[in-house]
């Protein structure tokens, strides 16, 4: 597991790093834009990738986008990445058959 993906930071630290209030961060979680883990005591834990994502979300919100638009953009981006991976796999399989 990469240090970027390990969820270890509490919401207060994430708030300081991003400039977002804890309420804003919780709101983005409610809107299914960010997915923190929970400790046994229920404390939210975030990763460095979560911090980067929160900063991206905040930038898009400042640009005037709504949360549902950001979620839709992310879904489209993920679908495009999946298509590229599938195509890459098909090309690799076809290339291997010829050699």
Automatic annotation (TrEMBL):
Coiled coil (residue ranges): 58-90
Transcription regulation among keywords: yes
Transmembrane region(s): none
Stored PROSITE patterns: HTH_MERR_2 (PS50937)
Keywords: Coiled coil, DNA-binding, Repressor, Transcription, Transcription regulation
Xref: Gene3D superfamilies: 1.10.1660.10
Keyword Amino-acid biosynthesis included in the entry's annotation: no
GO terms assigned for molecular function: DNA binding; DNA-binding transcription factor activity
Domain of life (superkingdom): Bacteria
HTH merR-type domain ranges (all copies): 8-76
InterPro entries: DNA-bd_dom_put_sf (IPR009061), MerR-type_HTH_dom (IPR000551), MerR_fam (IPR047057)
Protein name: MerR family transcriptional regulator
PANTHER family documented for this protein: HTH-TYPE TRANSCRIPTIONAL REGULATOR TNRA, REDOX-CYCLING DRUG-SENSING TRANSCRIPTIONAL ACTIVATOR SOXR
